[in-house]
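User: Quick sanity check before I run a bigger batch. Here is a single chain. Can you write out its predicted 3D structure?
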Amino acid sequence: MAGLVTTFGAGAMTNSIGEIRQADFLLVIGSNTSEAHPIIAMEMKQAVRRGATLVVVDPRAVWMTTIAERHLQLKPGTDVWLLNAMAQVILSEGLMDEAFINTHTEGFEAVRQAVADYTPEKAESITGVSAEDIRWVARRYAQTDKAGIYYTLGITEHSHGTDNVYALANLVLMTGHLGKPSAGMNPLRGQNNVQGANDAGATPIFYPGYQRVDDPEVHAKYQRSWGVDLPIEPGLNLNRMIKQTGKQIQALFVMGEDIVLSEPNVSQLEQGLNSIEFLVVQDCFFNETCRFADVIFPASVFAEKDGVFTNSERRVQRVRKAVAPPGQARPDWRILLDLAQHCGANWNLHSPEEAYREMVRDAPKFAGLSHARLETERPDGKTGIQWPCPEPDHPGTVFLHQDGVLRGKGLFQPVHYRPSAELPDQEYALVLSTGRTLYHYNAATQTRRETGLAEKQPQAFVEIHPRDAKRRGIVADDWVEVRTRRGAVQVRAMLSRQVRPGCLWMPLHFAEARANLLTNDAGDPITDTAEYKVCAAEVRPCSPPAGSSSPDQEEGKLFPGSFYPLDGPGAESASPPLAP
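Assistant: Done. Predicted structure follows.
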């Protein structure tokens, strides 16, 4: 979001999900789309069937690589080298859109100079991607009119994640792939309604509608509107809060997130949770963080409350209560309102509709939205409205920047490659990345309670290339210990050619084998987003943990998230099954 707001003026997908199937070129980078965003992946598959060119950039051979024209299997953390090299090809071969650059952008010359030395040949030595592939992809992207970029946490969860976003935005601006259908730059948001949470101002730097808290005019407007004195300095972001837990921060209110599973370097966090004075957890199920809580507020799930959700394509959709919350559970807004009233806030709100009306009142991008409008049946049969929607009679915005870049002019941002915060060495010779699988979701607070999903993927694992496994005396299904400078976990070994030699991959969902005991909390200098995707690690065989079960040898049971077989006869030539 920070990179997009800076370069374009809006922190969201520039285009719509429905436009994907009409695209002619799809650059998917840092996204295991078929497992993390399966509905969007279906649209991409439709585009490929229609004849679109798909290029996947990822250190792992995810399922989407099986239908891609090219798979650029770069070394983890080298995205800036690859993207700058693509920019160098576009500029050196005169493939840029000079009319768009002159009319709609600023700062172009600084980027031209910055990428001049990032030749494909030099990039090949750093990234492991061939110079020929880099040139081919750069040319096809620049010369295709309907060319869209799609990315997610594989780009942003780095100590240089914002640089990665800037480098992508530079490609979009220099080719003019903005303000038109089936193009643009499209972050696939990581959680349901995370776009809506950001829209509403759930960040330390923005009020609703991406209005900066340190802007004097915005600050004065919200002081008048809310009738309170407000600090003008931005607050702490999540990574800094976590590092200050038990130090500067002595009380936490954790709502809708299991931080003991989801945050990096979690041993340090647990020390902080054991020393703070007060912890409140608000969630729909008991989770790992609840073990440290002084007070637990049981919250309702999505089907038990009213309100709106906003998805990745900026579509605001009405949500209606289907069933009553069980027991003492209540909707989040009601819990927060009652807590505020006990603190003397005197908030005069009686429904989610009233709260939403107050939110959009002072946010120009959303001023034309309301519950009443969202409930009105549309002539085209679609539900919801996409922001910006500044007026009550505005139809919404299918794709952004059609009449010019929202910030006035698109801002080129020169970036240079910076290595990841922690690289392999003699003691920790491998690179560990973490991510999601098809069957579980984030901290699995909900999905591991569902019998079918738990049966599909019952336990954690670590993917390791057969070459690395052989050197360490590891065979398929072995119990192994994965260790970094921050901790160690015991999991089953999955021998897989999905990962590059020298790399490991683990899912983050499992409390009994917490990947985030291992991950690095080094943060991006702008957003402080932690570097979940690169940390130095080592793996060795170990004894089974106490109480562990024998491996389930039924095909597809132990490691159903992988489409490549375990190491063995035929592994080199085996074909993947149909898409999940």
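The radius of gyration is 24 Å.

User: Great, the batch can go ahead then.
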